[in-house]
Design brief:
single chain, about 325 residues, alpha+beta, 5 strands, elongated, disordered C terminus
Length: about 325
C-alpha cells in the first residue's frame, strides 16, 4: 500500500497463542476487555506502515479480542482480522506517529534511488543484460582462470557487498529474453517501438487482478510490492535501464512529466529485475521481510513468463536506428 518495494511483516501476527478453550469468551481473562468498538475509526499497523482503518466487527476468538478491519481508501479484499496490538486509537498523537513513520519510509526509498544513481557510472553496469548473458555463457563454457580473477576483482570493488544482494531467480525464458533484448539494441540497431501496449502500468494491474482472482483474500504486501516496482521503474529507467542508443528515444517519448511506466513495457520492466539486487542492497530490511519480498518478486516473474508471448515483442523497430547511430549513441 504505497510503500516502495516493502514486503512488510505484520507487527503482531505471531501473538495468537492460546489455542484452547474453543467456545467464544470461555476462560477469557477479566483484564482483556474490548478496546475498540464496531464502527470506530482507528489506525492500524500493516507491515512497516500505519494506515487509517475502520473496525467492522469485534469478537472474542481463541480467548482474546480480534477486530475485523477495513483499510480506508482500499479495496475490501484487504479487510482482515487483527489483534488489538495492531490497532491504535485515532488521536492527534497517533496520527503524528503515522506521519513520522511514513516520512521515514519515503526518505529511505529516496535514499535507495539516489544510491542507484551512482551505480550507472560503473563501467560494468552500463549494459543491462550483461549479467544475464554472462550467466548463460558460463553454463555452457568453462571460464578462463584469468577472466575469473578479473571478475572477482570487479566484484570486490562494488559498493554493495555480495552477501547483502537479494537473489532473484529469473526463469530461463526471461533470461533468454534479456539476451535477445541486448542483441536487438546493441548489435542489430533496433529499438522497442513506443508507446508499448500493454505498458508497465497495465501489466501490474493485470497481475493484481490475476492474484485477486486466484487468492481472493490476497496479502496486502502484494499491493505494496507492485506500487514499489512502479516507483522504482519510473525513477530507475532514465538512470540505469536504458542503452545509449535508446536515450534520444526516451527524451522524445517521455515529455511533460509523463510516467515512463505508461510508455514503456515488459522489455524494460524485465531489465529492472537485473538491477533490483543492487538497489535493494542499500535498503535496511529485516531478513523475514526480505524473504517475503523475494517470494513476491519471483511470483511476479513467473507471471511474466506465463504471459511471455503477450507481454513481450517478437521483433523490435529499426525506423529510428539510423538517427541514433549518426548521433553516436552506440555502446
Amino acid at each position: 500500500m504505497g510503500s516502495p518495494i516493502t514486503g512488510g511483516k505484520d507487527k503482531a501476527d505471531s501473538v495468537t497463542k492460546d489455542g484452547g478453550g474453543g467456545s467464544s469468551g470461555a476462560g477469557l481473562p477479566v483484564s482483556k476487555t474490548c478496546l475498540f468498538s464496531e464502527g470506530e475509526k482507528v489506525l492500524a499497523y500493516h507491515g512497516p506502515r500505519i494506515y487509517a482503518a475502520k473496525v467492522l466487527k469485534a469478537e472474542i476468538r481463541k480467548n482474546e479480542w480480534k477486530y475485523f478491519v477495513h483499510y480506508l481508501g482500499w479495496s475490501k479484499n484487504w479487510d482482515e482480522w487483527v489483534i488489538g496490538d495492531r490497532l491504535l486509537k485515532y488521536t492527534e498523537e497517533n496520527m503524528e506517529k503515522q506521519r513520522r513513520l511514513n516520512v521515514e519510509k519515503r526518505q529511505g526509498a529516496d535514499k535507495t534511488l539516489k544510491s542507484g544513481r551512482s551505480l550507472q557510472t560503473k563501467p560494468k553496469s552500463s549494459s543491462v543484460a550483461a549479467d544475464s548473458k554472462a550467466d548463460k555463457e558460463d553454463s555452457k563454457n568453462n571460464v578462463a582462470k584469468g577472466k575469473k580473477r578479473k571478475v572477482e576483482s570487479v566484484v570486490e570493488k562494488e559498493s554493495v557487498s555480495t552477501e547483502k544482494l537479494v537473489k532473484i531467480w529469473i526463469p530461463s525464458i526471461l533470461r533468454k529474453q534479456l539476451v535477445d533484448d541486448c542483441e536487438y539494441v546493441t548489435k542489430q540497431d533496433k529499438l522497442v517501438k513506443l508507446p508499448r501496449s500493454p505498458n508497465v502500468d497495465e501489466i501490474l494491474k493485470q497481475y493484481l487482478e490475476y492474484r485477486s482472482q486466484k487468492d481472493h483474500m490476497m496479502a496486502m504486501s502484494v499491493v505494496e510490492v507492485l506500487n514499489g516496482l512502479r516507483c522504482y521503474f519510473d525513477k530507475a529507467l532514465p538512470l540505469m535501464l536504458l542503452y545509449k542508443k535508446e536515450r534520444q528515444q526516451f527524451q522524445e517519448a517521455v515529455v511533460d512529466n509523463i510516467s515512463p511506466s505508461t510508455i514503456y513495457g515488459a522489455e524494460h520492466l524485465l531489465r529492472l529485475f537485473v538491477k533490483l539486487p543492487e538497489l535493494l542492497g542499500f535498503v535496511n530490511i529485516e531478513e523475514e521481510t526480505m524473504t517475503l519480498l523475494q517470494k513476491r518478486l519471483i511470483e511476479f516473474l513467473k507471471f511474466l513468463q506465463r504471459n511471455h508471448s503477450t507481454f513481450f515483442l517478437s521483433s523490435y523497430d529499426s525506423s529510428k536506428v539510423a538517427e541514433g547511430t549518426e548521433n553516436g549513441n552506440d555502446d
